Every structure is written in C-alpha cells, then in structure tokens.
Amino acid sequence: MSTDIRGNALTCTADAARRLDGAIARFHAYLADPVADLDALLVEHPDCVMAHAMRAAILATTTDRTFAAEAATSLAAAEALAPRANAREQAHIAAVRHWVDGDLSRATESWGGIAIDHPHDLLAVQFGQLGDFFLGQSHMLRDRVARVLPAWRRGMPGYGYLLGMHAFGLEESGDYARAEAAGREAIAIDPRDGWAAHAVAHVMEMQGRAEEGATFLHATAPGWAPDSLFAYHNWWHLALFCIERGDIAGALALFDERISAGGFGQALEAIDGAALLWRLWVLGHDVGDRWSRLLPGCTARIDHGVYAFNDVHAMMAFAATGDREAQQAVIATLERAATGQGTNAMMSRDVGLPLARGFAAFGQGDYRGAVACILPVRGIASRFGGSHAQRDILSWTLCEAAVRAGDAAMAEAMVAERLAMKEGSPVAQGWALRAKALARPIAA
Questions:
Q1: Which residues 6+ apart lie within 8 Å of 39 measured at CB?
Q2: Which of 74, 137, 232, 237 is most buried, taking the most CB atoms under 10 A from its CB?
Q3: What average pLDDT does the segment 56-82 reach?
Q4: What is the radius of gyration, based on Cα positions, of the chain?
C-alpha cells in the first residue's frame, strides 16, 4: 500500500505511486504525454490498478472510437485487478465502465461521488468536469469543483489546477468576474496551466473582448503552448478573436500553423478545425483548400456514432464541400444512434439530427430550411455538450442564414440577440447592416 502526492491510498508500490503522480500531473496540465508515462509505468508495475483505470479513462473520454479498443483493453486489465484494489480505485474502475458502456451521466456522477468521499482526488474532479463538459452541464462544471474547494488550501499540490477547473465552471455559469480572477490566479501558480488560460479566454470571448483576449493569449502562450496536448484549442480561441477583429488572414494562419499542427488525428482537433473554417466560410471568406485537411479524419469516423457533437461538426465539413453522399451518411449514423441506448442516443435524437440537417440545408443553399432546423433546437443544444463558445456557432449560422433567406423579421431578431450579447462586435454589426437592408413586407 502507498499513497499519491495528495494522500489518496493506492494499491501499488511506492515507486509506482511516484510515477503515477507524474502522469497525473501531466494530465492535469494537459501536457504530453500522460498515456506514454502510464505505459512506461505499467511495463515495470503491471499490477498498478490505478494506472490501468486512468489510462482507460483518458482514452475513453476522447469521445473518439479510434481509441475504443485500447480503452477497453486497459479497462479489462483494471477490472481483472479490481478484487485487490481499494474502494476508491474500484469506484474509478466502475466510472470508466459506465462511460465505455455509453452511460456518460452515470460515469460523471460516479467520478463526482468519488470526489465527495475523497476531496483530494483531483483526478476524479477532473474526469467529473470532463463529463460535465461533454454533457453540457454548465452549472455542474462549477459546482462539482466547488464541493471540494473547502478541503483545499493554497500550496497543496495541484491547487492551481483545481482553481483553473473552477474558473471554467464559473465562466460557463456566467460568473465572469470570479472566473477571470480564479483563472489568472491559477496561471500565476503554474503558467503551464492551459485549462486555466482557456477559462480566461472563454470569459473574454463571451464578453466580446477580442482585442484584450488576443493580447492575453499571446502573453500567456510561452507558458501553456510548449509540449501541450491542448494548445490547439487555445489557438482556436485566438483565431476567434482574430475573426472578430477582422483579421481573417491571421485566423487562417493560425489554422495552418497551429490548429492543424496535430494533423487533425483526433476528433477533438477536427471539431476545432471544422468550427473555425465554418465560421469563416459562412461569412463568405475564401478558405482555399483547407477543408481537404479535415475531410480524411471526418470520413474515417463517419460511421462511428459515439458522440453527436462530433457528427454535427463533421457535417459542417461535408456541407461546406458539397459532398451530398457524406452528408447522407452522417444523417444515417445519427439516425442509427438515435434509436440505440445510452447518452448519445438522446443527444443524437434531440439535438444532433436536427442540427446536422440544418447545416446540410445551409450548405445546399436552403437557408429557410436551415433556420427551421436549427432555431427550435438552439435552446436545448447544451444537451449534446460543448461550451457556450462552441455552441455559439448555432447563433452565428442562424444570423447568416436568416439574412441570406431574405427574412427581414427573422434576421432582425437574430441580429438583435447577437448585439445584445456583443454590442461592439464588428461581425454582428455587419449582420445588422445587412438585415436592415432587407425590405419588410407591408402589413395588410
């Protein structure tokens, strides 16, 4: 028996516990490569049950079926060792099992339960927050972290990462001032904390502080960018700030040099790539052949059907490139998922299918059809996960679709929403001018 750096009991040797701490620290900071660290640990300590459970959880929560076989192998190894594990470790194994079986809600609550019983188990807190993110549970992103904060104090190993997680939850709950303060404090503790930097970037995105947001990300990048598995997402946020500032060349350069650096080999990277290009393409900007870099990954996953959020972003790539066959394949995947079991069935049925149809309609020039599909779902879109900034693509698309459809009333309504949220946004002001140019029909 040993303990980790925060005093949580482990059924492994002291050397395995020390090396596990190293892998966990990398995971908290999203630095490369915790899975490689776990692999090396398991070569020498194949009976370290927590290493198997953590490896399975990391791979499973990628929401990418490409890693499903590896996740299942690690989970099977953990389950085989479960009889000799302690109760906390067994609970981690059970949480991963729920996730792999498709019950994301139960898995997330299981990790949350571990954190309640063991408030210094920062790994349980982090997996719980990831679950809340994929489920779109904005307030739980905040509250699940708040539950354990009283048990922590500044100076404890990992305290800064806890603050960074709380900052993101506060931002998604609309408490922007506290979110920014917590995020900046976390960065001061560890400049490598890309999640905390991302939380502050979210605050500035939601408040329309594009110039300040760009300055902030440039200033903090020397800390969070090197050796990061998460940097592509912070560069994506910088690209959004570029678009708001009218710097289209800068946004495209970030796509070329930063966001696509990983080659879109993972689903989460492809989501950011598609979301950026769609925003630009919808506004009428020439993105060149950049969609072609996303298509192989989207096509390879076209029948996976494990997370509707991914499928909808794949639809953006296929709609923008006019690939009708691929669009129908995405719809078929979502229809199949919608009739199945588990969390993704609900996501696909309630949100994924109508949104995919709406993006397909937009790509085909049916702008009224796009509005008809997207508008009724936007209010419940949190059901299929993501952040407010990511789901903002729905409002973005609605504004442009309403203007292109020539529907003056709808365009004015959509743009009014946008300006209420981001009064100084040049993009929103552009939509406002175009909406005003539409002639309203004279009432009888």
A1: 55
A2: 74
A3: 97
A4: 22
User: Do 243 and 330 have their domain in common?
Assistant: no
In-domain check, residue 147: no
Please indicate whether residue 178 or residue 444 has the higher confidence score (pLDDT).
Answer: 178
| Omega cis (within 30) before 33 | yes
> Cβ atoms within 10 A of the Cβ of 441, count?
7
Is the same domain home to 130 and 157? no
Give 417's pLDDT tier (boundaries 50, 70, 90). very high
Q: What is the pLDDT confidence band of residue 145, given thresholds at 50, 70 and 90? A: very high
Structure confidence by residue, pLDDT tens digits, 46-63? 999 999 999 999 999 999
Query: What is the rounded end-to-end Cα distance, in angstroms, of the chain?
Result: 82
User: Same structural domain for residues 333 and 432?
Assistant: yes
Dig out the tokens for 354 from the structure: 């109508």
CB 201 within 8 A of CB 242: no
Note whether residue 145 is domain-resident: no
Compute the distance between CA of residue 232 and CA of residue 228 in angstroms, rounded to an integer: 8
pLDDT, tens only, 159-189: 999 999 999 999 999 999 999 999 999 999 9
DSSP 368: H
Name the token pair of 397.
């698309």
The CA-atom distances, in angstroms, between 18 and each of 22, 41, 57, 127, 239 are: 7, 10, 20, 21, 39
Residue carrying structure tokens 């990628």: 62
Separation between Cα atoms, residue 304 and residue 346, nearest integer Å: 16
Q: Do 82 and 36 share a structural domain? A: yes
Residue 271 belongs to a domain: yes
pLDDT, residue 162, reads 98
Question: What is the span of the domain harbouring residue 432?
Answer: 262-444
Contact of 76 with 109, CB cutoff 8 Å:
no
User: Rounded distance, CA 179 to CA 172, Å?
Assistant: 9
Owner of token pair 């598609």:
274
What 3-state class would DSSP assign to 31? Answer: strand
- Contact at 8 Å (CB) between 57 and 99? yes
Write the CATH number for 101.
Answer: 1.25.40
Q: What is the dihedral of CA 90, 96, 98, 99, to 10 degrees?
A: 170
Tokens found for residue 267: 């689903």
Q: Domain check: are 410 and 314 in the same one?
A: yes
pTM exceeds 0.85, yes or no: yes
Structure tokens at 405: 């459809």
Q: Are strands 9-10 and 2-3 parallel, antiparallel or unpaired?
A: antiparallel
For 283, the token pair is: 């506004």
Point out the domain boundary residue: 208, 231, 261: 261
Q: Please, are residues 182 and 163 in contact by the beta-carbon 8 Å criterion?
A: yes
Is 364 in the same domain as 417? yes
- Identify the band that residue 263 occupies on the pLDDT scale cut at 50, 70 and 90: confident
In the block, which residue shows the tokens 């950011």?
Answer: 272
